[in-house]
## 1
Amino acid sequence: CDSIYPNKYKGWYCVSEESFLLEHQIRPDEKNEGQYVSIESNQPVEWVEEQNYMFKLSNYINDVAHWLDKNEDVVKPKKFYNQLRNMCSEIENDISVSRPKARVHWGIPVPDDDTQTIYVWLDALMNYLTVSGYPDFHTWPPHIQILGKDILKFHGIYWPAFLIAAGLEPPKSFLVHSHWTVDGVKMSKSVGNVVDPMSKLSDFTSCGLRYFLLREGTNHSDSNYSETKAKNILNAELANTLGNLLNRCLSKSINPDNVNPLVNRECYEVMFTKEPVLTELIENCQTLHEDVKLHYSEFNFYKGVDSIILVLHLANKFIDTTKPWTLRKENKIEELNLVLGVTFEVLRICGIGLQPIVPKLADKLLTRLGIPTNERLWDNMRFSDNDMFNDRHKLNDEKIILYEKIK
């Protein structure tokens, strides 16, 4: 391959990162005089001079820069695009893509040279091609690749360069995510604060754990994992805001026939004008589909959930304001049907919107509401007051607890 050649390489090498570092990427070790560590990982580095195979990154770095420049949305969030563009402008030298077998004996041997093993990041990145069926794949390039912020350089510079050198297209986009800390501290085996997600399933269920991670996780900044915070959010939003809203509408004291009732249009129009909370609720429902679609498409799942929870809060406020239990006692059936009909419509669209976040819980909710599976598509999430005026149907009789409160 014309892009790879043998040469003597020297530089600062970090064993834990499996990477050579530049001078501005290291600093003196405060605990060990004369030693240096990686600024990013705080792991020790050592000066190395050895015979390696080199990849002519200098031949392709302009192509990588052009790939980045022609579409700034190729890397999201934008802050990581900017970081990558800066990294790209700093690269001047070729990179080592092998290691002496005497030092890294466990690596894949370099073809026709058993004294060298292939650099782990060249080997690892090529696996994307392998699992895509190379050379007979029909789905390349991928629409999106997801990676952690700590491996941005390898995926955002080396990987496109390797592909271009091989005559292949780089991925169409990258989604870069930040990390989780624990009570504000970076996870570390030495500190003993690494959270095993599998061990949390018994505490929060898979549904609860998914919800918390997608609710609180942000791509642009590190997120904080806290047992107390997880418990509070799950109880407040899944058990109370969503679960109790459903229970209030299913209560035999206000909905003894277990139906989604027909709403009287005239009654609806009157209440819409005189009840500000209903006006606010409907206005937010009418924009919810597009709001959530935008946030999800930008991979800002927490913003999408924010929009859904806001609507659910407004629906609970609507019930508190209209007091359906009083409407039942006073035999104001048309107003009661309006409250139930609007609330069931809110639960329907929010259930559809929550399907990517908590699919099992959303399925349980939509099944209880009697929503057929072929009516749970994204376009079905649009708020429809016409259905409230024209459709009365029996609800599913199954007794459910959407999310059991954590003690």
Note: DSSP finds 13 helices and 17 strands in the chain.
## 2
Amino acid sequence: MYIKNALIVLFMIISTTLFGQIKVDDVGDGWKAKVDSALVLIKTYDSVKYELVLKECKTINFWLGDFSSNLPPNTILISVKDLKLGSINNIACVIVHESLHLNIASCSIKMDQRLEEYTCYKYELEFLTRLPNVEPWLKSHT
């Protein structure tokens, strides 16, 4: 009984430590778990980008838009379309990409919209090169 309780407490501490700063909406069919898996992927393969995610993102919400986006100062909006693709790698890329948009906004950097988007895609591609077993369609999309 003590071991079971200790394991439960340990799991709660680890979960809070890993994602204590980011609130993920718990809606949809396992969407929160997919986002949590994507956050673990980012933390595992690119600690620098993970630190930027933690710095800039406080909330991850979901929306019905055609593409994922962000809502400064600190919210990432993941499109339901991106979630339905079923790729944890894609969700991780969305989080990395949108966190850079949030960083650009929080630093009050003024940049042409096309240049900003190019910069964020380049940043996302740098992340993709660190991941094992990336889907070919994901590389070609970026």
Note: The helical segments are 2-19, 31-45, 47-56, 80-84, 88-106, 113-128, 136-141.
## 3
Amino acid sequence: MMPRQRTRLQKTHSIIVAALTSLSIVALFAAKPAVASAFVKTERTQFVLDGKPFYVTGVNNHYLSWGSDAEVTQVLDDAVAMGANVVRTFLGTAIGSPDGEVALTIWKFHNDGANSSALNVHGHYFLYWDPSAHGMAINASSMRKIDLLIAEAAKRRLRLILTFLDFWSFTGGSYQMSSWYDLPTHQGAPWDTTNPAFFTDARVMADYQRWVKFVVERINPLTEIAYRDDPTIFAWELMNEAHAPIGLRRQWEAQMAAYVKSLDRNHIVGAGDDYPIFDAPGIDFVTWHGYPKYLAITPDQFNNEITSKCRMAPLYQKPVVLEEFGYARSHPDQAKAYKMWLDTMAADSDCAGWLVWRLVSPQDDGQYPKDEVEQFDVHHDDGETWQVLSNAAHLGRKVADDVGRSR
């Protein structure tokens, strides 16, 4: 009996080993971050996913490329809680030379004591001036933040709009890149003449393209997928709120959109405009940013502006998205205004969606950041404004199924 017993034991052992091996393989694949299965595309005036309408209900957040891992995942969790399907953020934090002497950093890079929302980037930057090479260099180590952002968004089935650069100098942006070459900038001048050299100087344009190429072709070590092959990315955007004379801006957007598409045939490309150019070649969807405060109009007038912008969609056969909007919480009618605007977009088949400015979450100290100036911050506090946004986001799912829209 002993040999037979040994044989049975051996067989049993083999079965157990095989089962454990199978479980290990399953666990291995399960442990890999989830990845969206298809890329969002455009079809005339709407976005589509797997051939079905995709209505954007989204949020902006400005610190996802430098906040702590906990701060980043909290924003994503709050976006899910709201019912959002798209999150937008900016890349391209730029400084002078790391020694702070050869090329000056034009913004407050060392913002110790502030929190992430108040632009304490905690030493993270993507672009800098390298004195030894006498040119721009890329700090690849800071891309870990974006790797994590993409992987964590995929787990939550969120899509990302990644904007290559901010026009403004809050964290360097286009102004810092122009300053490397002592190009003239005129902050405070008329909005379309503040940094025109950025859009014409061959050196800066080459730097920008090198940065774009680096980002698009990067392979995410957490997902083992190149950014250009990852459907978690909803779209690339050329710049947040590029300001230049319209003719120059149209030319630059067309050139850079073509460049992005030469590297990546999968993703759609937006401009990131606050003042839209509807006919820019190569731009797949139109964005605009609207704040009654800065437009000096009432909420009702802003509602008319929404309708006016969306009417342009069928004329140019492109989706139109209200990509940023905000109305100070000090206004007692904030929630009422948001509901009016969101209802207008949901009912209008020419509107492709919205992203509110801006969703922020508790910082590492456990507190919400202060926002006493613009007062646009949105919190997951179950307040009236949160409920309006959440209801609109969930309605967006019905809109995507062509339910509840006037035709």
Note: Residues 20 and 26 are 10 Å apart (CA to CA).
